[in-house]
Amino acid sequence: MSKQQKRVAIVTGGGSGIGLAITEKFISEGIDTVIIGRDEEKLSMAKSKLGALCHTVCYDISNLSGIPQLVEGILDNLGQIDILVNNAGINMKKDFVEVTDEDFQRVITTNLCSVFSISREVVKHMLPKGKGSIINISSMAAQYGIPRVIAYSASKTAIDGMTRAMAVELSPAGIRINAIAPGFIETAMTAKALNADPERKGKAMGRTPLGYMGQPGDVADAALFLATDASRYITGVVLPVDGGNSIGF
């Protein structure tokens, strides 16, 4: 393969789990990758593991007003942004009637509003270039109803709608927008949730035709596909990477 020109990706929430796996995959393909995360320690661990192509920015993306400056700083430093992966997200498990307006808004701000804000700022840079790929990380919670995660479900369902609307508006300008809906993936976050709740875990696996949990690398492979010209004729899709969970019985 001929040596490709420089490519720069941003992965929000790239310090651990699925985000880190995506970052590793991109870097293994020679893509300069900027991880945005809140945890300085996780970021420096990732940086020391992944080396020179890994760039870290400690920032809480729920702070919407600083996002234009954040993107500007990355452009000043690296000169371009070709790929954006909107992976950062928070979850909260509570009975419906216990969720306060503040709880609900906090999840919506992080999982939805910040995705809009950072995408808008990155798109401003991609439009003049006539090229770019944005990948939103959705969820099974947007494919079917899951109890006790009302704010998360609302945010991820909105992400799917936003993915389609962005794709229709921006793809004529050469910018492709897609989403990945991971199923049950083995990360620290899901392990904690499912191992404490054997009944829920049994239910999850019972409706997953492949019968086992996925690995973060499975999502990373899909992200690399959607980020590169391998998927140049694909836009506006929500791709489940879920072992068949979303169509399982």
Features:
7-stranded parallel sheet; Sc_DH/Rdtase_CS; 249 residues; Rossmann fold; Glucose 1-dehydrogenase; alpha/beta; EC 1.1.1.47
Description:
- The chain is α/β, with parallel strands linked by helices and 249 residues long.
- The chain has 8 helices and 7 strands.
- The chain has helices at residues 17-28, 40-50, 67-78, 101-129, 150-170, 188-195, 198-206, 216-227, and strands at 8-12, 32-37, 54-58, 83-86, 132-137, 175-182, 238-241.
- The protein has a 7-stranded parallel sheet with strand order 3-2-1-4-5-6-7, sandwiched between helices.
- Helix 5 (150-170) links the parallel strand 5 (132-137) and strand 6 (175-182).
- The radius of gyration is 17 Å and the shape is globular.
- The mean pLDDT is 96.
